[in-house]
Design brief:
By secondary structure, the protein is mainly α. It has helices at about 5-25, 35-60, 70-80, 90-115, 120-125. Helix 1 packs across helix 3. The longest helix is centred in the middle third of the chain and has 27 residues, at about 35-60. The chain is elongated.
């Protein structure tokens, strides 16, 4: 496996892990059943993507992504801060959309920097 493929798979792991942790943190604040169902579906899809990236890295005997305690705490603190005074469905949906957009942009940057990563890792990232 090329180093560029490893970088893409690690970014998929990082990105999906962050999304899953954000969903876990925010799910207690969701009171709208439709939104709760939607973010649960997203969490499931992120888990599938995360597991596939991890599988590919393990098969290639490459080191998987490991999040840091500090980054996890910063993510959770940011979510708690942004929902301290407003837990409305619209606000939470807006936060989820912004977080997803940031993840997409980060993934696009990694794909751009690793243009020769290969079809399989690129397809999973997209």
């Amino acid at each position: 496996m090329k180093s560029q493929e490893v970088a893409v798979y690690r970014e998929i792991q990082r990105n999906t892990e962050m999304a899953i942790k954000a969903i876990e943190t925010i799910s207690d604040k969701v009171y709208d059943d439709n939104l709760a169902i939607q973010i649960s579906r997203q969490a499931l899809k992120y888990s599938e993507l995360h597991n596939e990236a991890a599988k590919q890295l393990v098969e290639a005997k490459a080191e998987p992504y490991h999040s840091s305690y500090f980054s996890d705490m910063m993510l959770k603190a940011g979510i708690h801060y942004n929902t301290l005074l407003n837990t409305s469905t619209g606000h939470i949906a807006e936060l989820m959309i912004k977080g997803s957009n940031m993840g997409v942009l980060e993934m696009e940057k990694v794909l751009h920097h690793n243009a020769d990563a290969g079809e399989q890792s690129t397809a999973l990232a997209k």
